[in-house]
Design a protein that fits this description.
This protein has 32 helices and no strands. With about 675 residues, the chain is mainly α. The longest helix has 29 residues.
């Protein structure tokens, strides 16, 4: 039923977009490929062991960074012309990364005790580590993030020469290097801690779902459940993107996977090619903010705020529902706007037949939350969810992570195990985390600089000063800062940078810390659809044969109804109801009527914005109706009684005029 219909040229283009997001790694053959695969498998097994057993914090973080750097230098070329060729300097960098990890671990307590006064060897080794991290970031993420990180390091070294309020006392090279790698504040700080525990485990879990066929099942199930009507294809995009968020963990990969199947159907029912691409990319964006996995930055929220990951999932629930509600409303309006033909797409199997066969994929996806509700930590929850995924896959021969034939002795013991989906999943779990882990190590240098110099407090005081103490202006400025940073760097880096320099401004004006961080996370995710890093829309444009920039604008149109939602949970304390009060404990004592009302106004606001931006609602809207709907949507996003009144009156007026227009059009249609 869900066959890939992408031609070879387009597929090559799509692979390039995915590699641009995840890094353009080498494709080795022979013994070298086997060696890297086995190292990656070993890395995944080590982290699974660390999840189940106890590995001291410093050891875990140092080994994690050492393994990441080792694999990055063997897997990613120094330049495109050296692609698929292992050069002597790659081997040197890889060995150097392992040697530095050994130097740190063998130093023991004496090593960390001398962080304020490192010796010459410490400084040289630390400089080497910083340079290796910057090079790994360049190979996996490009020069922009390296440039941003270098500017922060330069600020730490030479900030004493800057005018007030940016100045600080200045730090010499020894003090900076010592702080960055001889403590758990810089390179081996929060970002690497989250990468070494949660992010890699969730990446391994996603790989297990992928290699046991969960991804294909979710797409097949979505098409079977939603197909049959004109709007069924659009709904399918929305549902399958949501379900695919767990297995892929990537906006681009989700867009490509769903789009390769859905693009011809979108064209058949009448979607304009740029709008089709925009819908696909918007669905891919939603995959990053959808429980139970969310994006890598979500794990950092839990660590920054020192809260349970279950609380982060709780906070993301209503915003995610609102995001997909916006997409569903846009899809329903599309049916009228494009005059879609009522084409029926035959499914080889019904949703019920698919569920009877592959029900365990649903359980694998929600098992993380189930384990957390039973009191397991997030690390142990994802560990056991991975185990559940592996064992449940063995229920059917076509999903078995280790072939049934291997157990029957029909395949060689070592060869069969090496070629099994188990080995592929374990290897993919580690290789899939390399770009994010390198970003986290680089971000550690940024966070270390901000902590050492007090830049976060300086920046927040400057923002508040420019905003004249206004929460609304501070919120707008913060959103702009996150958006501008997100133009240049990936979601994870964008969130980390803005969490340490921009969040204090909101918190100082009385916004709860959890709401400030969710606000920044939400806008950091938008970097996925913001040029020049708009990889998801560009990939969708390639699939649908549209214009990349027009497709990006269409993507913004589809996600715009949900863009104002974060303002609702920072401009007024009642808005935190959309985040379900930020924790299970607070929710137990919350005013449920207030939460229901805030959610209701958000829903109506999203419907208003969807109609206003689409130019259609019940019928084609007039110019004044569009203006009224957009103003009403914005008003409903502002948590105040007067604003709600304006929003509901505006929506009611348009509803009346649209209903009259619809009734008048009926005789003409007849």
């Amino acid at each position: 039923m869900t066959e890939n219909v992408i031609d070879h040229e387009t597929q090559a283009q799509l692979d390039a977009f995915i590699k641009q997001e995840e890094g353009d790694s080498n494709d080795y053959k022979g013994m070298l490929a086997k060696f890297i695969t086995l190292v990656a498998v070993g890395m995944s097994l080590f982290h699974l062991y660390a999840a189940y057993s106890i590995v001291p914090t410093q050891q875990l973080r140092v080994i994690h960074v050492g393994l990441v750097l080792f694999l990055v230098f063997l897997s990613f070329p120094i330049a495109a012309k050296f692609k698929n060729r292992l050069m002597w300097w790659d081997v040197l960098f890889a060995i150097g990364s392992a040697a530095i990890a050994y130097y740190i671990l063998s130093g023991g307590d004496d090593f960390s005790d001398r962080n304020t006064a490192p010796n010459t060897t410490d400084i040289m080794v630390g400089l080497g580590l910083i340079l290796l991290i910057l090079e790994s970031v360049r190979r996996t993420n490009g020069m922009i993030l390296v440039g941003v990180t270098s500017l922060f390091l330069a600020y730490a070294l030479f900030g004493n020469y800057l005018p007030a309020p940016w100045t600080h006392k200045g730090y010499d090279l020894g003090r900076l290097v010592g702080y960055m790698y001889m403590t758990l504040e810089g390179i081996y700080g929060t970002a690497v801690d989250v990468s070494a525990t949660l992010i890699i485990l969730f990446t391994i879990f996603g790989a297990f779902l992928q290699f046991t066929g969960a991804g294909k099942f979710f797409i097949d199930f979505s098409f079977a459940a939603m197909g049959g009507k004109s709007s069924g294809v659009g709904r399918t995009i929305v549902l399958s993107s949501f379900l695919m968020g767990g297995p892929s963990g990537s906006g681009v990969a989700t867009t490509v996977t769903v789009g390769s199947v859905a693009a011809p159907m979108l064209e058949k029912v009448g979607y304009e090619k740029n709008a089709a691409g925009g819908l696909l990319a918007a669905g891919g964006l939603g995959a990053i903010i959808s429980p139970p996995v969310l994006g890598a930055a979500a794990f950092l929220i839990a660590d920054f705020l020192k809260i349970s990951y279950l609380d982060v999932l709780l906070m993301a629930t209503i915003p995610t529902i609102l995001f997909y509600l916006g997409l569903f409303v846009m899809v329903e309006i599309d049916v009228r706007k494009y005059g879609m033909k009522n084409i029926h797409f035959e499914a080889t199997e019904t949703a019920w037949q698919l569920t009877k066969k592959y029900w365990f994929h649903f359980f694998s996806l929600i098992s993380i939350v189930v384990f957390m509700l039973f009191g397991f930590s997030p690390v142990m929850s994802v560990f056991w969810a991975t185990i559940v995924s592996a064992f449940s896959s063995m229920l059917r021969e076509d999903t078995a992570i280790i072939p049934w034939a291997w157990f029957k002795g029909k395949e060689p013991i070592l060869g069969g195990l090496y070629n099994s989906n188990l080995t592929k999943a374990l290897a993919s779990g580690s290789t899939g985390v390399l770009a994010i882990a390198a970003t986290c190590a680089g971000a550690g240098l940024i966070v270390g600089t901000v902590t050492l110099t007090g830049l976060g407090l300086k920046f927040s005081s400057i923002v508040i000063q420019y905003a004249g103490g206004s929460l609304l202006l501070t919120t707008i400025f913060t959103a702009l800062v996150v958006w501008v940073v997100g133009l240049a760097v990936p979601v994870t880096a964008s969130y980390i940078i803005c969490a340490v320099i921009a969040a204090p401004a909101l918190i100082n004006l009385g916004v709860p810390a959890f709401a400030a961080h969710m606000f920044i996370f939400y806008y950091a995710v938008l970097s996925e659809v913001s040029p020049p890093t708009a990889l998801s829309p560009f990939a969708a444009a390639a699939i649908c044969k549209g214009n990349p920039y027009k497709t990006t604008l269409q993507t913004w149109k589809y996600v715009a109804p949900a863009i104002l939602v974060p303002f609702m949970f920072v401009l007024d304390k009642s808005g935190t109801g959309l985040l379900l009060m930020g924790s299970m404990d607070a929710l137990a004592q919350a005013d449920w009527m207030q939460i229901a009302w805030t959610s209701f106004t958000a829903v109506v606001g999203i419907i208003c914005l969807a109609g206003g931006l689409q130019g259609w609602f019940i019928e084609k809207t007039r110019v004044y109706e569009r203006i009224v709907m957009v103003i009403s949507g914005v008003a409903l996003a502002y948590p105040a009684t007067e604003a709600d009144l304006i929003g509901f009156i505006g929506f009611g007026l348009v509803l009346v005029t649209q209903t009259i227009a619809h009734l008048r059009s009926k005789p003409t249609a007849a």
